[in-house]
Specification:
The protein is of the alpha+beta class and 931 residues long. The longest helix is centred in the last third of the chain and has 62 residues, at 677-738. It is elongated.
Length: 931
């Protein structure tokens, strides 16, 4: 559907302006329609055009003009009924355009479906002709192409056209109204009379008498529905010549069962006026023949009396002779029936509408059964049998809508013994029906499923089971939460009475309350069972000491507790690029994993999402990933290619206090709703507990191995140094014996002191570090450290300078350890400096308790090294780090040692590119160092 080519926007505006001027100048409806059709044919490329006026009283569309090129048809001037729920009804009700992809396949347009098939019309759009809030007609446009709907500019043109046309129609209709409308004066007189009356019967008498005088029928009556007896009877009537006393001379009596006039009641419940005239030679299927026989009437004009949205009765004008009813008479009796409706709901006087006591009695019995129920399935069966027997229906179903597909699953159904159950789910509803179901709290009644256009998606499935009429009702007032739909079906067409709908609505809402409590109870029991199984599983995991066995047990626990069809555990070593499936449980043959080759975790599109991206570190790693099996990359399908797989859930094997995942738990499902939110959270808890236990075991094994290695190393060095120390002592004694001159012995004294110090070190710190505090001047420690580093400074031709050193600064700590730490910092600065670089040592008193030594150099240091050093206390022990090899290992030991002494070591990059090594130490205090 496109515009004719070659028309500029300016020309289109001029065309619209000309059209509006022409419409306002017309004085006949025919000329209005001709102007609009000429504009549409000139401006837009729509083969099918139809303009119709809406008759609200008759619920019909009257064709005013239109056509299809090269084809003439009388269909464009005929009258078409507007049925509840069809597309014309929706356009008139919502006053919004409706687009149709293919008019030939749309059953909600009545005869226009066959017209579209005859003239090869597919895509179509229906526009309302309206004036303000009143819908006056419909514009139908059709194209030969499928689904080619109007563009934005076309929509604008059509919107202007339809509103202008609606305004012109309204203007002509106002001019056509005669200056002295006849129904207005009698109605005003009725209103004036009943406004001064307080008794309901007196008001009714005025309405009946005035209606009789206005229409001139044989008699005028009010028929009322008896909900207890399921019947319709003549409550009051007025006949000429009776005066003001109704029914005094030969009172008219009439009463029939509602089942005998179902079609008639159905038409009235839709707000329609029913007229019967034998002189027209017509057989009206809606005529209440049993009533007409009892009253000996040959013509009938009826209008519904409504109260609280329900049909309570009808006002009737009847004649013993055939008669053609005029439009003016139909309008008057409709207005009179509305006055009766107002009198019915008036707070003054008697209100004839009585609430069904039988409904209260039944609901009391139903509620008592629910409260005393110990076996809910058995109770539900008793309730549904009783309800269906009372309402004389053959089927009852409880439907639950699937949030994913929109289908309605049959959660429970009851049917008569000789009938077959409904198999399979009901199709998703159309958008209109879905909104109607969500917005309507009360019961929705369909008297004839074959004729009614509502719930069209269910028609084929239900009618194949013999259902001809049904009632649909929600079991909860909330439309947002998931709820059960109650459907009651009958195998014959019938009119559902207000008391039946009232009973069904109360039953549905009461049933919904108890069903929700039952579901909550079952869910609670299910969750408690899962909690208990998970708790036992956690206890089992805590008792396992082997990391590989731990993962296998975790996979088995998740499979058993949650009936998982596929669970696989993948593990890897931090810092390495490959992982492996170490354990899995599957339900063959649909679910199976046979490949055990290494998995490139950093390149696999599924698993690499568990790691923080190096390109965007601000994005946190994912701990839960959901993916469809069809979207898995070929690399992933190499190791995860299970035939029955539809959905994949990946959970990181990662403890909450560690940044690095050590593996992944893979869950495979056949559908998307296997794991509910609660189940998935519980699985996450189990996997986190498994991850924490797995990490603890790995770290414990790692630290135990390192401790054994260090013990062995310390033993080896201790024994070796002891042996070498004894050898030095023996050699030194021999040298002393040979050195006769005192001056020679004096030169050997420093060597003897070194050997004695070594022996003391081997004795006091053989297997435990000695951190006994002493006080040492800062200048002495700095001097001895500089002496140690002097050979390297000379070899690299480095320039060093100490700034702000004071001689009276005394440190608290272990002087030998502080000296070695300072030496290690200076050595690292020298090793990363180039030939001829400068190294500065800055001394600064922070306060009376702390002193700061800062070393700045011009060397190069990897940013990752500084990052690892800053997080040395919280680093992942299982992940590789630059602090695991020299010089990082030495600096890591220095960091721990200074912390023992109450100080702090920091490394940082300065803005000018230099590297800062900062050592903060405690000054001499009476309490000694912080332990």
């Amino acid at each position: 559907m496109i515009q004719h080519a070659g028309r500029s926007s300016q020309e289109q505006l001029v065309g619209l302006q000309t059209l509006i001027e022409q419409l306002l100048d017309q004085e006949q409806v025919e000329s209005l329609v001709d102007c609009a059709l000429q504009f549409l044919r000139a401006e837009l490329d729509y083969p099918l055009l139809w303009i119709a006026m809406y008759d609200a009283d008759q619920s019909e569309l009257s064709g005013l003009g239109g056509g299809v090129p090269y084809a003439e048809s009388s269909a464009f001037g005929q009258r078409y009924p507007v049925l509840p729920g069809d597309l014309f009804d929706q356009v008139l009700l919502t006053r919004q355009p409706i687009e149709v992809m293919n008019l030939q396949e749309e059953s909600r347009v009545g005869k226009w479906q066959k017209i579209a098939q005859r003239y090869q019309i597919q895509g179509a759009v229906l526009y309302p002709l309206q004036y303000r809030q009143d819908a006056l007609g419909v514009l139908l446009l059709g194209s030969a192409h499928w689904g080619r709907n109007p563009r934005v500019e076309e929509n604008s043109q059509l919107s202007i056209l339809t509103k202008s046309l609606g305004a012109a129609f309204h203007h002509l209709n106002q001019e056509a109204i005669p200056p002295d409308p006849s129904p207005a004066q009698p109605l005003n007189a009725i209103l004036n009379q009943i406004s001064s009356l307080t008794d309901w019967e007196d008001r009714l008498n005025v309405v009946l008498q005035s209606t009789q005088q206005m229409i001139g029928a044989t008699f005028t009556g009010l028929y009322w529905f008896d909900l207890e007896e399921n019947s319709c009877r003549l409550k009051s009537c007025y006949q000429p010549g009776q005066g003001n006393r109704l029914g005094r001379v030969r009172p008219i009596r009439a009463e029939v069962q509602l089942t005998e006039i179902e079609a008639f009641c159905q038409a009235l419940s839709l707000g329609q006026i029913v007229s019967v005239s034998e002189s027209q030679g017509m057989v009206n299927t809606k005529a209440p023949l049993r009533l007409m026989q009892q009253t000996k009437s040959r013509s009938l004009l009826c209008a519904p009396v409504m109260g609280d949205g329900q049909l309570l009765g009808f006002l009737s004008a009847e004649g013993i002779e055939p008669r053609v009813w005029q439009e003016q008479e139909k309008q008057f009796i409709q207005a009179a029936a509305q006055l009766v409706s107002l009198a019915v709901v008036s707070p003054v006087g008697e209100r004839p509408v009585q609430v069904s006591s039988q409904t209260h009695t039944l609901m009391g019995q139903f509620t008592q059964l629910m409260l005393e129920s110990n076996d809910w399935p058995k109770t539900l069966k008793q309730l549904t049998e009783h309800l269906c027997r009372h309402l004389q229906t053959q089927r009852l179903m409880l439907l639950q809508q699937d949030e994913g597909t929109g289908e309605f699953r049959v959660e429970y159904q009851y049917h008569s013994p000789k009938l077959r159950p409904l198999l399979g789910a009901l199709h998703p509803l159309s958008d209109v029906d879905q909104r109607m179901l969500e917005r309507n709290i009360g019961a929705i009644a369909l008297s004839d499923l074959e004729e009614d256009l509502r719930f069209l998606a269910w028609r084929e499935s239900l009618m194949s089971q013999g259902v001809r009429s049904l009632v649909v009702c929600r079991t909860t007032a909330s439309s947002k939460s998931s709820h059960t739909i109650l459907v009651l079906g009958s195998h014959r067409t019938r009119t559902w009475q207000p008391n039946e709908l009232e009973l069904l609505q109360q039953f549905a809402q009461t049933l919904g309350t108890f069903e929700q409590k039952q579901r909550d109870y079952l869910l609670q029991q299910h969750q408690l069972k899962l909690y208990s199984l998970a708790q036992k599983g956690l206890q089992t995991l805590l008792e396992i000491d082997d990391p590989t066995q731990l993962m296998a047990t975790g996979v088995e626990l998740i499979t058993d507790i949650f009936n998982a069809p596929l669970v696989a555990g993948v593990l890897w070593v931090p810092g390495q690029d490959q992982g492996r499936i170490v354990a899995y449980q599957a339900a063959p043959p649909e679910f199976s994993i046979t490949d055990s080759s290494p998995i490139p975790i950093r390149q696999d599109p599924l698993l690499k999402q568990l790691f923080t991206s190096t390109e965007d570190p601000s994005q946190p790693p994912k701990t839960l990933i959901k993916a469809a099996a069809r979207s898995l990359a070929p690399e992933t399908r190499l190791w995860l290619n299970s035939p029955g797989l539809d959905k994949v859930i990946v959970l990181a094997v990662q403890s909450p206090d560690a940044p690095t995942p050590l593996g992944a738990m893979i869950l495979g499902t056949a559908t998307d709703d296997v794991y509910k939110t609660f189940d998935l959270r519980l699985i996450q808890t189990l996997v986190q507990a498994l991850a924490s236990r797995y990490r603890a075991l790995r770290e414990t094994h790692l630290l135990h191995r390192k401790w054994i290695n260090l013990e062995c190393l310390n033993w080896y060095k201790q024994r070796s140094l002891e042996f070498e120390s004894k050898q030095l002592q023996t050699a030194l004694q021999k040298i002393y014996a040979l050195a006769l001159a005192p001056s020679t012995q004096q030169h050997l004294d420093p060597l003897k002191q070194r050997v004695d110090d070594l022996n003391s070190l081997l004795i006091t710190e053989g297997w435990q570090l000695n951190l006994d505090a002493d006080t040492t001047p800062l200048a002495s420690i700095l001097r001895r450290s500089m002496e140690r580093i002097e050979p390297i400074i000379e070899a690299r031709q480095l320039w060093t300078q100490v700034h702000n050193l004071t001689t009276n600064t005394t440190l608290t700590g272990t002087s030998q350890k502080l000296e070695l730490v300072l030496y290690e910092l200076l050595l690292a600065a020298c090793q990363r400096s180039k030939l001829g670089d400068r190294i500065d040592i800055w001394c600064r008193l922070i306060n009376a308790k702390w002193v700061e030594l800062s070393i700045t150099d011009q060397g190069q240091l990897h940013p990752q090294f500084i990052q690892d050093f800053q997080s040395v206390k919280s680093r992942d022990l299982l992940a590789p780090s630059l602090l695991d090899k020299t010089p990082g290992r030495y600096l890591r030991v220095c960091h721990a040692l200074i912390e023992h002494l109450g100080g702090r070591i920091e490394l940082a990059h300065l803005e000018d590119g230099r590297i800062l090594s900062r050592l903060t130490l405690p000054l001499q205090t009476s309490s000694g160092p912080k332990r």
